[in-house]
Amino acid sequence: MASGERIIVLGGDGFCGWPTSLRLSREGYDVIIVDNLSRRKIDIELGCESLTPIQPLERRLRRWRELTGRTIEHHHLNIAEDYADLAALIAKIKPKAIVHFAEQRAAPYSMKSPRHKRYTVDNNINGTHNVLCAIVESGLDIHLVHLGTMGVYGYGTAGMSIPEGYLTVKVDIDGVDREIEIPYPPHPGSIYHMTKTLDALLFYYYNKNDDVRVTDLHQGVVWGTNTDDTMLHPDLINRFDWEGDYGTVLNRFLVQAAVGHPLTVYGSGGQTRAFTFAIRSAAFSWPSSTRR
Ligand SMILES: NC(=O)c1ccc[n+]([C@@H]2O[C@H](COP(=O)([O-])OP(=O)(O)OC[C@H]3O[C@@H](n4cnc5c(N)ncnc54)[C@H](O)[C@@H]3O)[C@@H](O)[C@H]2O)c1
């Protein structure tokens, strides 16, 4: 993909979306963030905040422009509810790709009450479907990149390594063995993980029916806080969630160890998980005048 092309980052104010937006902007793409700031409102609901002092999005974007001369736009849209605005934006921007991070992403939060379950399903499923529907309505060849989670497979497996891509299985059709390809069977353990398995089905359908190009990554916990881009200035710092709903296991262990609290282990403690160190990016050189 050539620089100067446009990329929409849905959820670009969040933990993964913010450093991704800066990285793409630095590489020369015109980045358009769509975010309804719902994650910041959930901090207020839960009475907690990021351990790092994250700045309001408009201030972050202003600082980025001052330091690099590069503009990142922000559109305050709820992708699960504002379909007409989302479709109009996609048609106007004509992005080469859309990176989709805009979901409620905490399994514990999704299980707190019927309201939280319904919010997570409404937000995540309607949001993903609206994006797919708007891509088709635009008539454009837009590559959709989505972050799923390995949690869709549950904690057990069928006694085998989970294969990349599809699984070839033999089925008996009218007494004849046929080979077919299926996605690896999902086994979600929370409402949040269930929304990710439903996302995958929506992607499968829209790819098959409408040729929408989709990359759905089912990786493990993403950890790390800052990148070379966010470290250019304190106003660009990324969020660090540490509490019981949004703080993932490494962050919680780090904070507990720092204050001398025993590490809180869920269940038997025998779970295994993959961790993706995705946040601190590879070394690169900014002009020294832009470094702080
Ligand atoms: N953080 C991880 O370890 C991890 C691991 C696996 C998968 N993921 C996935 O990556 C994605 C991003 O995760 P994150 O950790 O950056 O989460 P996050 O909560 O920090 O960021 C999500 C952003 O999306 C926005 N958003 C949510 N719903 C929206 C809506 N309807 N309209 C517009 N904006 C909306 C929020 O305001 C927030 O800024 C999620 O889909 C998550 O499931 C994250």
Description:
This protein has 8 helices and 10 strands. The protein has a single domain (6-155, 186-284), classed as Rossmann fold (3-Layer(aba) Sandwich), CATH 3.40.50. The longest helix is centred in the middle third of the chain and has 25 residues, at 114-138. The protein starts with 5 loop residues before the first strand and ends in a 15-residue tail after the last strand. The strands form 3 sheets. Strands 3-2-1-4-5-8 form a 6-stranded parallel beta sheet, sandwiched between helices. A two-stranded antiparallel ribbon has the order 6-7. With 292 residues, it is α/β, with parallel strands linked by helices. Bound molecules: nicotinamide-adenine-dinucleotide. Nicotinamide-adenine-dinucleotide (NAD) binds at residues 11, 13-17, 34-39, 78-80, 101-103, 105, 123, 127, 147, 149, 221-222, 248.
Q: Which radius of gyration do the C-alpha atoms yield? A: 20 Å
Major β-sheet annotation: 6 strands, parallel
Kindly report the CATH topology: Rossmann fold
Strand order of the largest sheet: 3-2-1-4-5-8
CATH class: Alpha Beta
- Could you give the distance between the termini? 30 Å
Topology:
Elements: E1 6-10, H1 17-26, E2 30-34, H2 38-46, H3 57-68, E3 73-75, H4 83-93, E4 97-100, H5 107-110, H6 114-138, E5 143-147, E6 166-173, E7 176-183, H7 191-210, E8 213-217, E9 221-223, H8 249-259, E10 275-277
Parallel strand pairs: 1-2, 1-4, 2-3, 4-5, 5-8, 9-10
Antiparallel strand pairs: 6-7
Helix pairs in contact: 4-6, 6-7
